[in-house]
Every structure is written in C-alpha cells, then in structure tokens.
Amino acid sequence: MSVVHRLAAGWLVDHLSFINQCGYEICDPFAYPGGVTLNTSVTSAGRFRATSATSSSGDGPIPDPEIVVEAQSKTAKPRYMFREEFFDILKPHIAAAPEDQLWQGCPGMNLTEIKKRKRKCVFNQGELDALEYHSNVRKLIWEGTLHLVQEGLKSGFLRCRAAEPSCRKNVIPRHIVCGLAELCEMAKQFPAVNESDHQAVYVLGDETSIPEQDLLSCVTENSSNSAKIVVLMGQKYLVPPKSSFLLSDISCLQPLLNYKKKYDVIVIDPPWENKSVKRSNRYSHLSSWQIKQIPVPALAAPNCLVVTWVTNRQKHLRFVKDELYPHWSVKTLAEWHWVKITRDGEFVLPLDSLHKKPYEVLVLGRVQGDIKEASRKSEEILPVPEHKLIVSIPCSLHSHKPPLAAVLAEFIKPDVECLELFARNLQPGWTSWGNEVLKFQHIDYFTLLQNK
C-alpha cells in the first residue's frame, strides 16, 4: 500500500512503493528452445494447463507439456522498478532557520513582522491574500506534519538526522525528450477519422509499435494482468496492467467521450497559468475559460468525487470554488494539502517562505444531480472530512503528483471507475488523459530487474 501511516491529521504516503506495486512485470510470449509452440487452456481454478505441444522443426523429441509448463513457471520474467534516486530528497531545497524548523514546535506567525523582516517593498493584493490564507492553515500543516513525521521516524520509513546520508547521486536522465505534446499538436494535421468506421478502443496485444493515428484517435487499453511496452516515435513506454489512456490535447477529447464510461472519481491537475510556466515554456497553460470547457458533467457518474490540484495562488483557489465547481454542478466539500518533506522529515522549503510553499492545495467536491441516485450511491461511504494532509517525499521529476487512490478509498465504493485529467503517468484501474499522459512511463525512468 502507498499509505505508510494514517492519523487523524491525514496520511504519510510512500509514492515510490505505489509505483512499484503497479505490476510492471512483462510477460513475453513463451518460446521453448527448438521452436516448440505451447498450447494452453485455463482451468476453472484460473491456472494454466498445457494441452499439447508441437515442434516447428520436426527434429528431436517434443518435451512433455507438463515439463514445459513447469519450466515456464520457473523462467525469469523481466520486471521494471521505478528508479529510487528520484525520491532521494535528502535535504531541503532551501534550509529553514533553526528557530523555524519542524522540530522546534509551532512558532506563531505575525504577518506584520514577516513583511518587515523578509521584504521591504509593498505587497500586492494577491500576495496579501496568500499570506492571509497561509496564516489560517499554517498551524494545521505544522502540527499535522509533525505527528505524521514522528510516526514515520518510529517505523523507520523516514530516517533520523544522525543517519549517514546516501552516497547515491540524484541523476535525472537529461536525454529524455518528451515530444508527446508536440505530437498531439501535429495530430491536428492528420486526415480526419470517420468515427463510424473507427474503433472506440485500441486494445494492446503482443505488438509494441502503435501507429500514431491509432493512438491519438481512440482510447488505448491494456486489459491484461501484466504490463505492456509500447513504442511511440522510437521511444519505449511502459503501460501498467488494467489501465487505459488517451493521448490528446483539450481540443481532441471526443474519443474519451466515445469510450462511454461514467467515472466515480475524477482527478484534475490543470496547467494553471503562472509566471514560472511562462518563463520556463515547459508546457502550455490554459485560461480559466478553457478549463471550464472540460466536459466533466458528461464524464461524471452521479455523486462523482471531483478532486482538483490548485497552485498556491488565491486567484486559482477562488476560481475553482466560486466559478469552476458551480459551473460543473459540483459542491465543494473540503480543502486538503499535500505537504512535501525530505527523508529526514523536514519541509522541502521553509513553511513561511514567500517565494514557494512546501505544500499544494487540493479542492474536493461532489457532483450534484439526481437526489435519489446520489443518496443511493452515498450509502456506506464516509463523508469527506475537511483539512486533511497528504505528507510524502516528492518525486524530483517536475509535476509527478502523489497517488490519491489509497487516501480516497474510504470515501468511495470499491471497484469504481476512476479518471485523471491532465495526467503525466498511468495507474492500474484508472483511465488517464493528457497531452503528456505517457511522460513518466518512459522506460528510462525505470530499472530492469529479473525475477528468479
């Protein structure tokens, strides 16, 4: 499980463990030496049973099928693990002053004093709003994080300050160039696909190379119990079992609607407009008007739980609660916070930093619709509580958000349909959409192991 500890304040989450439990084991078609083809059937107990074996060469004896099956079960299968160094956040990006560190209790926050001490120029209204919001949530974040970190240290999940630091270098592969967004832009120049003649779902088989037009014009699904490798523009990507995805931008959402699924959970990570995005040119941003055009009502099941990641700009938080959710007929229920810590349990940034905060906001709400249907669906589901923390060591890859499946589990029914919008990675049991939906599935982010 990705949840290491659960307290009243929230959850301590192991993001790396969640990825590696997704089942990135590749089951290659079995080929016995000598060109033997094994024919199998599945018993009522779900076990594979060999029914016959044939040889393509005609030379030499054909091995007993039972022996072949036994040999196959002992054959090493390639398994991929996400590289641990991406979660080796050993020290804060910016160290807090000793009196402001997590271990020193929870000092009070005086807005006037912060203005005098940390900045001489005048604050604009947006900055004043951010300071006011921070002052309201600060104590909750400090104390809740401290309790979860203490549990993590006791269990050994986090290491104490006296422990020897890791010698492993946090090396991010710089040669990986994500051209998925550019491919989605190019796809607009492809000849139009006649929907009546085109399949709504592309189910992955044993092939690895997928024509770009097939990938971009319908939802791609891995319905098997093992991971698949797909090759796109010469790059290899891992697709976890029981997952599906649509690679497209916001102008090409029709294939997702053609998928004919209604989702009980929708997680949204919009590319919010901000100064750093404009400077970096890392990915395009969307205006508030464009975000409102996302067809959430058409994708949502009755009583659907909607979760939206929001930056620390109060403008965006107010937009989600006051405009976006009402536009989608979603009732705001709660604000949670993702708190980022190091392996020592320190905030990755000083809690009172004026530049960036060591936390991000999630706004949770439910779709409002037919009262009877919503009431029936809400039976045996706990109400979503206000002010919960998700505390984790963040991935050093930009915008790799922590998994929410485990922390949301108690507020939704089991085996529900889940959707992530603006995703950059895949999850088993989820449908994911975005113009970089395979970004963090690139095979170079993983290490190949062999099961013995």
**Rg, please?**
25 Å
| Major sheet characteristics | 12 strands, mixed
The CATH architecture designation of one domain is: 3-Layer(aba) Sandwich
Class from secondary-structure proportions: alpha/beta
Fraction in beta strands: 15-25%
CATH topology of one domain: Rossmann fold
Search tags:
Rossmann fold, two-stranded antiparallel ribbon, 25% helix, alpha/beta, globular, 13 helices, single chain, 452 residues, twelve-stranded mixed beta sheet
Description:
This is Methyltransferase-like 4. It holds the Pfam family MT-A70. With 452 residues, the protein is α/β, with parallel strands linked by helices. It has a domain at 155-161 and 179-449: Rossmann fold, CATH 3.40.50. The chain is 25% helix and 23% strand. The protein contains 13 helices and 18 strands. It has helices at 15-20, 65-74, 111-118, 125-155, 180-186, 212-217, 254-258, 275-280, 288-292, 296-299, 314-327, 371-377, 405-408, and strands spanning 3-7, 10-13, 36-42, 48-55, 78-82, 201-203, 219-222, 228-232, 235-239, 243-247, 263-268, 300-310, 330-340, 359-367, 389-392, 418-421, 430-434, 446-450. A twelve-stranded mixed β-sheet has the order 1-2-15-13-14-12-11-16-17-10-7-6. A two-stranded antiparallel sheet has the order 3-4. Strand 6 (201-203), helix 6 and strand 7 form a beta-alpha-beta unit. The chain is globular and about 60 Å long.
Characterize this entry briefly:
The chain has 452 residues and is α/β, with parallel strands linked by helices. The protein is 25% helix and 23% strand.
List the helices and strands and how they pair.
Layout: E1 3-7, E2 10-13, H1 15-20, E3 36-42, E4 48-55, H2 65-74, E5 78-82, H3 111-118, H4 125-155, H5 180-186, E6 201-203, H6 212-217, E7 219-222, E8 228-232, E9 235-239, E10 243-247, H7 254-258, E11 263-268, H8 275-280, H9 288-292, H10 296-299, E12 300-310, H11 314-327, E13 330-340, E14 359-367, H12 371-377, E15 389-392, H13 405-408, E16 418-421, E17 430-434, E18 446-450
Parallel strand pairs: 2-15, 6-7, 10-17, 11-12, 11-16, 13-15, 16-17
Antiparallel strand pairs: 1-2, 3-4, 5-18, 7-10, 8-9, 12-14, 13-14
